[in-house]
Amino acid sequence: MSSAIHVEDLSVRFGSKQVLDDISFCVDQGQIAALIGPNGSGKTTLLKTLLGLVPMHTGEVLFFDRPLNAFREKIGYVPQRFEFQDDFPITVTEFMNLAVAQQLDEKAIVGKLDEVGLPASATSSLLGTLSGGQLQRVLIAQALLNEPELLLLDEPSTGIDIVGEAEFYNILKNLNKQRGTTILLVSHDVSMVSKLVDQVICINKCLLCAGPPQTMLTQQKLTELYGKHAAVHNQQKHKH
Prior knowledge:
By secondary structure, the chain is an alpha/beta fold. It is built from nine helices and nine strands. It has helices spanning 43-50, 92-97, 106-115, 132-143, 162-179, 190-196, 213-216, 219-226, 228-239; strands at residues 3-14, 17-28, 32-36, 57-63, 75-78, 150-154, 182-186, 199-204, 206-211. It is globular and about 50 Å long.
Protein backbone atom coordinates (compact mmCIF):
# COMPACT_ATOMS: atom_id res chain seq x y z
CA MET A 1 0.00 0.00 0.00
CA SER A 2 1.37 3.43 -0.95
CA SER A 3 1.95 6.17 1.60
CA ALA A 4 -0.47 9.08 1.64
CA ILE A 5 1.92 11.00 3.90
CA HIS A 6 5.65 10.37 4.10
CA VAL A 7 7.62 12.43 6.60
CA GLU A 8 11.36 11.91 6.93
CA ASP A 9 13.82 13.59 9.31
CA LEU A 10 11.53 16.60 9.82
CA SER A 11 12.85 19.29 12.18
CA VAL A 12 11.54 22.76 12.98
CA ARG A 13 13.35 25.44 14.97
CA PHE A 14 12.00 28.88 15.89
CA GLY A 15 15.10 30.90 16.73
CA SER A 16 16.91 28.99 19.48
CA LYS A 17 13.85 26.86 20.31
CA GLN A 18 13.70 23.34 18.88
CA VAL A 19 9.99 22.66 18.25
CA LEU A 20 10.24 19.41 16.27
CA ASP A 21 13.32 17.21 16.18
CA ASP A 22 14.06 14.63 13.48
CA ILE A 23 10.52 13.20 13.08
CA SER A 24 9.83 10.40 10.58
CA PHE A 25 6.57 8.53 9.99
CA CYS A 26 4.23 7.33 7.23
CA VAL A 27 0.45 7.27 6.95
CA ASP A 28 -0.82 4.70 4.45
CA GLN A 29 -3.43 5.56 1.87
CA GLY A 30 -6.93 5.02 3.28
CA GLN A 31 -5.87 5.10 6.92
CA ILE A 32 -7.16 7.23 9.77
CA ALA A 33 -4.21 8.35 11.89
CA ALA A 34 -4.02 10.49 15.03
CA LEU A 35 -1.26 12.74 16.31
CA ILE A 36 -1.26 12.70 20.11
CA GLY A 37 0.98 14.28 22.72
CA PRO A 38 0.95 16.73 25.65
CA ASN A 39 0.36 20.46 25.26
CA GLY A 40 3.33 22.16 23.64
CA SER A 41 4.57 18.93 22.07
CA GLY A 42 4.54 20.34 18.53
CA LYS A 43 1.39 18.67 17.14
CA THR A 44 -0.12 21.81 15.59
CA THR A 45 3.29 22.92 14.31
CA LEU A 46 3.70 19.54 12.64
CA LEU A 47 0.29 19.84 10.97
CA LYS A 48 1.07 23.38 9.79
CA THR A 49 4.43 22.22 8.44
CA LEU A 50 2.70 19.52 6.41
CA LEU A 51 0.45 22.25 4.97
CA GLY A 52 3.43 24.38 3.97
CA LEU A 53 2.68 27.06 6.57
CA VAL A 54 6.06 26.64 8.28
CA PRO A 55 8.52 27.08 5.40
CA MET A 56 11.65 27.12 7.58
CA HIS A 57 12.17 23.44 8.27
CA THR A 58 14.51 20.62 7.36
CA GLY A 59 13.57 17.15 6.18
CA GLU A 60 11.22 15.80 3.54
CA VAL A 61 7.41 15.75 3.29
CA LEU A 62 5.66 13.90 0.46
CA PHE A 63 1.98 13.30 -0.29
CA PHE A 64 1.34 10.19 -2.39
CA ASP A 65 5.02 10.41 -3.42
CA ARG A 66 4.61 14.03 -4.53
CA PRO A 67 5.69 17.34 -2.96
CA LEU A 68 3.05 19.62 -1.45
CA ASN A 69 2.86 22.00 -4.44
CA ALA A 70 1.87 19.12 -6.70
CA PHE A 71 -0.83 17.88 -4.32
CA ARG A 72 -2.10 20.97 -2.48
CA GLU A 73 -5.54 21.04 -4.13
CA LYS A 74 -6.25 17.51 -2.94
CA ILE A 75 -5.75 18.36 0.74
CA GLY A 76 -8.64 19.49 2.96
CA TYR A 77 -7.90 21.24 6.24
CA VAL A 78 -10.01 21.96 9.32
CA PRO A 79 -8.30 24.27 11.86
CA GLN A 80 -8.40 23.93 15.63
CA ARG A 81 -10.25 27.20 16.09
CA PHE A 82 -12.23 29.20 13.60
CA GLU A 83 -12.45 32.76 14.87
CA PHE A 84 -15.18 35.10 13.67
CA GLN A 85 -17.68 37.53 15.14
CA ASP A 86 -20.87 35.75 16.12
CA ASP A 87 -23.00 38.59 14.82
CA PHE A 88 -21.31 38.71 11.40
CA PRO A 89 -24.18 38.27 8.91
CA ILE A 90 -22.91 35.39 6.75
CA THR A 91 -24.96 32.31 5.92
CA VAL A 92 -23.65 28.76 5.57
CA THR A 93 -24.12 28.97 1.78
CA GLU A 94 -22.14 32.21 1.58
CA PHE A 95 -19.39 30.76 3.78
CA MET A 96 -19.12 27.63 1.64
CA ASN A 97 -18.77 29.77 -1.48
CA LEU A 98 -15.76 31.56 0.01
CA ALA A 99 -13.69 28.41 -0.54
CA VAL A 100 -14.24 28.12 -4.31
CA ALA A 101 -13.49 30.25 -7.34
CA GLN A 102 -16.96 29.95 -8.87
CA GLN A 103 -20.24 30.13 -7.02
CA LEU A 104 -21.69 26.74 -6.14
CA ASP A 105 -25.26 25.80 -6.88
CA GLU A 106 -27.47 24.96 -3.92
CA LYS A 107 -27.53 21.26 -4.79
CA ALA A 108 -23.75 20.94 -4.48
CA ILE A 109 -23.77 22.64 -1.07
CA VAL A 110 -26.67 20.54 0.19
CA GLY A 111 -24.84 17.41 -0.95
CA LYS A 112 -21.73 18.28 1.06
CA LEU A 113 -23.78 19.21 4.14
CA ASP A 114 -25.58 15.88 3.87
CA GLU A 115 -22.23 14.08 3.96
CA VAL A 116 -21.52 15.62 7.36
CA GLY A 117 -25.00 15.04 8.76
CA LEU A 118 -26.50 18.51 8.36
CA PRO A 119 -29.98 19.12 6.83
CA ALA A 120 -30.58 21.12 3.66
CA SER A 121 -32.21 23.83 5.77
CA ALA A 122 -28.79 24.63 7.27
CA THR A 123 -27.80 26.46 4.07
CA SER A 124 -29.72 29.57 5.14
CA SER A 125 -28.53 29.50 8.77
CA LEU A 126 -26.27 32.28 9.95
CA LEU A 127 -22.83 30.95 10.88
CA GLY A 128 -22.99 32.67 14.28
CA THR A 129 -26.15 30.78 15.26
CA LEU A 130 -24.61 27.32 14.87
CA SER A 131 -23.55 25.15 17.80
CA GLY A 132 -19.91 24.11 18.13
CA GLY A 133 -20.65 20.72 16.61
CA GLN A 134 -22.63 22.18 13.72
CA LEU A 135 -19.87 24.67 12.95
CA GLN A 136 -17.26 21.92 12.86
CA ARG A 137 -19.43 19.97 10.43
CA VAL A 138 -19.72 23.03 8.18
CA LEU A 139 -15.93 23.41 8.27
CA ILE A 140 -15.52 19.78 7.19
CA ALA A 141 -18.15 20.23 4.46
CA GLN A 142 -16.21 23.23 3.17
CA ALA A 143 -12.97 21.23 3.27
CA LEU A 144 -14.65 18.52 1.15
CA LEU A 145 -15.60 20.89 -1.68
CA ASN A 146 -12.47 20.07 -3.71
CA GLU A 147 -12.96 16.32 -3.21
CA PRO A 148 -9.74 15.95 -1.19
CA GLU A 149 -7.87 12.68 -1.01
CA LEU A 150 -6.37 13.73 2.31
CA LEU A 151 -8.09 15.48 5.23
CA LEU A 152 -6.08 17.15 8.01
CA LEU A 153 -7.88 18.19 11.20
CA ASP A 154 -6.46 20.00 14.23
CA GLU A 155 -8.38 19.13 17.42
CA PRO A 156 -11.65 18.79 15.49
CA SER A 157 -13.82 18.02 18.54
CA THR A 158 -12.93 21.24 20.42
CA GLY A 159 -16.09 22.86 21.78
CA ILE A 160 -18.31 19.84 21.13
CA ASP A 161 -20.15 18.02 23.93
CA ILE A 162 -19.64 14.28 24.53
CA VAL A 163 -22.69 13.15 22.54
CA GLY A 164 -21.84 15.46 19.66
CA GLU A 165 -18.22 14.30 19.76
CA ALA A 166 -19.19 10.66 19.19
CA GLU A 167 -21.43 11.65 16.27
CA PHE A 168 -18.67 13.83 14.87
CA TYR A 169 -16.11 11.03 14.88
CA ASN A 170 -18.64 8.72 13.23
CA ILE A 171 -18.84 11.24 10.40
CA LEU A 172 -15.06 11.03 9.96
CA LYS A 173 -15.21 7.25 9.98
CA ASN A 174 -17.93 7.28 7.32
CA LEU A 175 -15.95 9.69 5.14
CA ASN A 176 -13.00 7.37 5.39
CA LYS A 177 -14.96 4.24 4.55
CA GLN A 178 -17.28 5.62 1.88
CA ARG A 179 -14.92 8.02 0.11
CA GLY A 180 -11.59 6.36 0.90
CA THR A 181 -10.33 9.66 2.32
CA THR A 182 -7.09 9.41 4.25
CA ILE A 183 -7.41 11.33 7.53
CA LEU A 184 -4.78 12.70 9.89
CA LEU A 185 -6.12 14.40 13.01
CA VAL A 186 -4.67 15.96 16.14
CA SER A 187 -6.46 14.81 19.28
CA HIS A 188 -6.20 14.79 23.07
CA ASP A 189 -8.98 12.23 23.44
CA VAL A 190 -7.17 8.92 23.89
CA SER A 191 -10.42 7.04 24.46
CA MET A 192 -11.97 8.16 21.19
CA VAL A 193 -8.71 7.72 19.29
CA SER A 194 -8.50 4.10 20.41
CA LYS A 195 -11.87 3.37 18.76
CA LEU A 196 -11.42 5.40 15.58
CA VAL A 197 -7.93 5.27 14.16
CA ASP A 198 -5.71 2.75 12.41
CA GLN A 199 -2.48 4.37 13.57
CA VAL A 200 -1.37 6.52 16.51
CA ILE A 201 1.63 8.84 16.16
CA CYS A 202 2.97 9.92 19.55
CA ILE A 203 5.13 13.03 19.62
CA ASN A 204 6.71 15.28 22.19
CA LYS A 205 9.02 17.39 20.05
CA CYS A 206 10.45 14.12 18.77
CA LEU A 207 8.70 10.93 17.69
CA LEU A 208 8.16 8.66 20.69
CA CYS A 209 6.16 5.90 19.01
CA ALA A 210 3.95 5.10 16.03
CA GLY A 211 1.72 2.13 15.34
CA PRO A 212 -1.74 0.64 15.87
CA PRO A 213 -3.68 1.89 18.92
CA GLN A 214 -3.75 -1.57 20.48
CA THR A 215 0.01 -1.48 20.97
CA MET A 216 0.59 2.28 21.27
CA LEU A 217 -2.03 3.15 23.92
CA THR A 218 -0.56 1.05 26.70
CA GLN A 219 0.08 2.17 30.27
CA GLN A 220 3.83 2.29 29.69
CA LYS A 221 3.69 4.31 26.47
CA LEU A 222 1.08 6.75 27.80
CA THR A 223 3.26 7.31 30.87
CA GLU A 224 6.26 8.03 28.64
CA LEU A 225 4.19 10.45 26.57
CA TYR A 226 2.11 12.33 29.16
CA GLY A 227 3.80 11.64 32.48
CA LYS A 228 2.61 9.35 35.25
CA HIS A 229 -0.58 11.09 36.42
CA ALA A 230 -1.94 12.06 33.02
CA ALA A 231 -1.15 8.64 31.61
CA VAL A 232 -3.03 6.83 34.34
CA HIS A 233 -6.06 9.08 33.85
CA ASN A 234 -6.10 8.52 30.09
CA GLN A 235 -5.60 4.81 30.39
CA GLN A 236 -8.55 4.48 32.75
CA LYS A 237 -10.68 6.47 30.33
CA HIS A 238 -9.61 4.16 27.54
CA LYS A 239 -10.68 1.06 29.47
CA HIS A 240 -14.13 2.42 30.17
